[in-house]
Amino acid sequence: MTTAPHAVRVTGVHKRFAPTGPAVLQGIDLTIRPGEFVCLLGASGCGKSTLLNIMAGLDRPTAGTVEVAGDGAALMFQEAALFPWLTAGQNVDLALRLRRVPRAERRERVAELLEMVHLGGAAGKRVHELSGGMRSRVALARALAQERDVLLMDEPFAALDAITRDLLHDELERVWTATGRTVVFITHNVREAVRLGQRVLLMSSRPGRIVREWDVDVTGERSISAPQVASLALEITDQLREEIRRHAV
């Protein structure tokens, strides 16, 4: 893991997709500490995914700079995006092959990663044999196989039912604690953000700017239904609604 003073630093980032087009992001300044779990919230179309893609190196800002510690970030999308002709184990193995991990080491590493996401017995299963939650776990194992210090997650559980999503919250929290990764997590679900994040950032509607942030200090049970989670989620929801109303006027 990185020993740098920051895992991600975004300075003065602006983004337009055309020289005369509207601003998508405007003046984003953000520092994320190593090992921190940060959740990004905002209305649809506010630029959250654009910002994540810039952090991942898949897009470039129109102005400003982005620094990511180590050798870049791994990105996990809303869709698991597994290769259907490969097994669960082979999907994870592909990330290791791309890193040129020797064949002799790959089988053991695949087994370790699948065990980490509680899929130790599923290495030989094809994608069509996996539930939605299992596919998300394989995608997480594949992202971890990239061995990047920073993990970027773009609404990875949005398509799942509430019970499966809640179980995966527990799994992600366990994996984050075990690996020490820095996580930047996009969600539309305010309670999910409070349930998972150490810090929650609210983005305005376009042009996207960070307008509020909350440190999440929840004692005791950290679950969707916990009273402290619900209370803070209501406060953040009020601010989110205000941002949406302001944009609609």
UniProtKB/TrEMBL annotation:
<dbReference type="GO" id="GO:0005524">
    <property type="term" value="F:ATP binding"/>
</dbReference>
<dbReference type="InterPro" id="IPR003593">
    <property type="entry name" value="AAA+_ATPase"/>
</dbReference>
<dbReference type="InterPro" id="IPR003439">
    <property type="entry name" value="ABC_transporter-like_ATP-bd"/>
</dbReference>
<protein>
    <submittedName>
        <fullName>ABC transporter ATP-binding protein</fullName>
    </submittedName>
</protein>
<keyword id="KW-0067">ATP-binding</keyword>
<dbReference type="GO" id="GO:0016887">
    <property type="term" value="F:ATP hydrolysis activity"/>
</dbReference>
<dbReference type="InterPro" id="IPR017871">
    <property type="entry name" value="ABC_transporter-like_CS"/>
</dbReference>
<feature type="domain" description="ABC transporter">
    <location>
        <begin position="8"/>
        <end position="232"/>
    </location>
</feature>
<dbReference type="InterPro" id="IPR050166">
    <property type="entry name" value="ABC_transporter_ATP-bind"/>
</dbReference>
<dbReference type="Pfam" id="PF00005">
    <property type="entry name" value="ABC_tran"/>
</dbReference>
<keyword id="KW-0547">Nucleotide-binding</keyword>
<keyword id="KW-0813">Transport</keyword>
<dbReference type="InterPro" id="IPR027417">
    <property type="entry name" value="P-loop_NTPase"/>
</dbReference>
